[in-house]
Specification:
By secondary structure, the chain is α+β, with helices and mostly antiparallel strands. The chain has 4 helices and 4 strands. The protein has a single domain, classed as Hut operon positive regulatory protein HutP (3-Layer(aba) Sandwich).
Length: about 140
């Protein structure tokens, strides 16, 4: 498999779709050992509008904590920008509603992708959606 933006985006989506921490760790180890892709996932939830800042913050903190990005302005900005892009894609469905889900982040060389998988709650009528953002960082 050639590793480029498509593979990194796919890896972020797969991380966001994991159901357990054990599944996350298995996938993370597999991605790194086979392709050299660094990845992490983190949960979140709450009312969508108030969660936007938390989602961006959790993305950056998790990526730094797991060594997906370095502690530099450019790399933090790349993750934050990709997370904001993913959020923008989800906004039409989630605005004003409660959400919960998982953020998947993946990186290979200069490719960084953030995938956000969420459940959108409206009474007992739940909706699901995925948003994806990508940035290049050197």
């Amino acid at each position: 498999m050639e590793v480029g933006s498509k593979a990194v985006a796919s890896s972020a989506i797969k991380m966001a779709l994991t159901a357990t921490r054990q599944e996350e760790n298995i996938l993370k180890d597999e991605l790194y050992s086979k392709y050299g892709i660094k990845a992490v996932a983190v949960d979140y939830g709450g009312e969508f509008i108030t969660s936007v800042g938390k989602i961006v913050e959790r993305s950056v903190v998790a990526a730094k904590r797991e060594g997906v990005i370095k502690d530099t302005h450019a790399e933090e900005g790349a993750v934050a920008g990709a997370a904001r892009e993913a959020i923008a894609q989800l906004m039409p469905k989630a605005l004003g509603l409660n959400v919960g889900g998982k953020i998947g982040i993946a990186r290979y060389k200069d490719h960084v992708s953030v995938a956000i998988f969420l459940g959108i709650g409206l009474l007992h009528l739940d909706e699901v959606a995925i948003g994806l953002g990508h940035r290049a960082v050197s």
